[in-house]
Specification:
heterodimer, A: alpha/beta, six-stranded mixed sheet, four-stranded antiparallel sheet, 9 helices, 39% helix, B: alpha/beta, eight-stranded parallel barrel, two-stranded antiparallel ribbon
């Protein structure tokens, strides 16, 4: 694993009107690293990862992705970063009027200049990878939430991204469907994909993450490898958070 | 032989809200079910959905049960007449002959209201069936025996929805409950259970840790059975059809 960061975030701050949602956030992510970000609602975790592909603009500080400077808000740089960073959203965000296959072919054809044949081959490769090639001709409304999220992952992979961002990818799913999405994410992690996942799936964090980050009030309050993170949390807000979330998931709280 | 229904909640709350209960009614029909239980808590637009569900079920020849998420008595022991009226109105709009509710806060101070309930139920062709839920107040054997005994003493035309799995949530023995309540039971929720860390989860009967065959044998033959456990899979129609077929075969073997 390279030690050169693929993502560098320095002193990033952001406000929504008067409300400061991020405060002096520093974060470095190495290529191949799997990071889980957790924290209470409104802690800034989704905003932080959305700043990485410029879906949100940081108003202070510096963000560099794969050597591309995002801070100046140059349109060309934003486009370049988005070609390298795939994102999976809570609500899937598939185009409802396009089939699964068309959803997966769209971005490679329009932003990477792939031919229809190349895009289709790549789409089928990744639909196979998320174990739903047989759904290629269906529309999103014909699929379950778990299947739609797997399509969303396949669609992101079709761009051959260097980094994958997941913004609460299982929180709109019924509990019984969470596993099929997490299994797909685990398989990506096993292949060495650099991943930043905002999630409350602590079992996933324990088994997959290299580092777990806790955010509250727009700041990173604690970060550690999972074993230390769960066994010896230091910040009182993290201890309270873990106690709450682990008990609500029916697990023993170690905090 | 027992008609086989599907409680539409079996497809997952998020899935049902996403697709609508009508979508799953058609799936249940294709899977060979004899009827559906429409869930009040999963209606997004009851005014629009209930007539559509009624028409579709009528055309498909599907039996209907309406499940109200409200308790029949308030926490203070008073009859929640508005909740009853909402349930009866919804069942009527669905053209369902059966309304399922839980007793909620029924207690010793509620006995006086049983006469009012009898008067109201005499005015409707809809049969009220009381379900053992997962709460201490409305899901224990003692609570159900007390209510059903008092109701029978007052010639109240209420039967019981016997949920095979819910007894585990309240720490009761389902077989003992079946033996004690069999004469009241009009409708059965088929639900297997497994114990996970600190919680029970619903599973298909074939995967259940509970003595479900003995429970079903203890109940009257020929009652309608409803699937009420998670139905999930990439080929959801095949999964559902398989579960309907298995229950139908089981009903045949017990007949």
């Amino acid at each position: 694993m390279s030690t050169e960061p693929i993502i560098r975030i320095e002193k990033v701050s952001k406000w929504y009107g008067q409300f400061q949602v991020l405060t002096d956030v520093d974060l470095e992510v190495r290529a191949g690293e799997r990071i889980v970000i957790c924290g209470p609602s409104g802690s800034g975790k989704s905003t932080l990862i959305r700043c990485i592909n410029h879906l949100e603009k940081a108003q202070q500080g510096r963000i560099v992705v794969d050597g591309i400077e995002l801070t100046g808000h140059h349109g060309k740089n934003v486009g370049a970063v988005r070609r390298e960073v795939g994102m999976v959203f809570q609500q899937f965000n598939l185009f409802p009027h396009l089939t699964v296959l068309q959803n997966c072919m769209l971005a490679p054809m329009h932003t990477r200049g792939a031919s229809a044949g190349e895009a289709e081959a790549r789409a089928m490769k990744y639909l196979q990878r998320v174990r739903i090639p047989e759904q290629a001709g269906k529309y999103p409304s014909q699929l379950s939430g778990g299947q739609q999220q797997r399509v969303a992952i396949a669609r992101a992979l079709c761009m051959n991204p260097k980094v994958m961002l997941f913004d609460e990818p299982t929180s709109a799913l019924d509990p019984e469907m969470v596993k099929e999405v997490l299994d797909t994410m685990i398989s990506l992690a096993d292949d060495g994909m650099t991943m930043l996942c905002v999630t409350h799936e602590m079992g996933f964090a324990r088994s997959v993450a290299d580092r777990v980050i806790f955010m509250a009030d727009g700041r990173i309050l604690e970060q550690a490898p999972p074993q230390k993170f769960f066994a010896t949390p230091e910040h009182p807000k993290l201890r309270a958070f873990l106690g709450q979330i682990l008990s609500s998931h029916g697990q023993e709280a170690t905090a | 032989m027992s008609p086989i229904l599907i409680s539409l909640s079996s497809f997952g709350a998020a899935e049902v809200r996403r697709h609508g209960q009508l979508w799953f009614l058609f799936l249940a029909q294709q899977a060979g079910a004899d009827g559906v239980e429409v869930r009040g808590e999963l209606l997004v637009d009851a005014e629009r959905e209930l007539p559509a569900l009624a028409a579709a079920a009528q055309e498909a020849g599907l039996q209907r049960v309406y499940s109200s998420p409200e308790g029949l008595w308030s926490d203070d022991g008073g009859l929640d007449a508005p909740a009853l009226e909402r349930g009866l109105a919804a069942a009527a709009r669905l053209r369902a002959p059966r309304l399922k509710m839980a007793i909620g806060g029924f207690g010793s101070s509620s006995l006086e209201s049983l006469r009012r309930l009898r008067t109201r139920l005499a005015d409707t062709p809809i049969e009220l069936v009381i379900e053992n839920d997962q709460t201490a107040g409305a899901g224990t054997l003692g609570a159900l025996q007390t209510f059903l005994g008092e109701a029978r003493d007052r010639d109240l035309p209420t039967g019981m929805t016997f949920d095979m799995g819910n007894w585990h949530w309240t720490g009761e023995c389902p077989l003992q409950a079946a033996q004690a309540l069999a004469s009241h039971v009009r409708y059965v929720h088929c639900k297997g259970v497994q114990r996970q860390a600190q919680r029970w989860v619903a599973v298909p009967l074939a995967d259940s840790a509970a003595p479900w065959r003995a429970v079903l044998r203890a109940l009257p033959a020929g009652l309608p059975w409803a699937i009420e456990y998670p139905l999930i899979g990439d080929d959801l129609l095949a999964v559902t059809r398989n579960q309907v077929d298995e229950l139908r075969a089981l009903a045949g073997s017990l007949a």
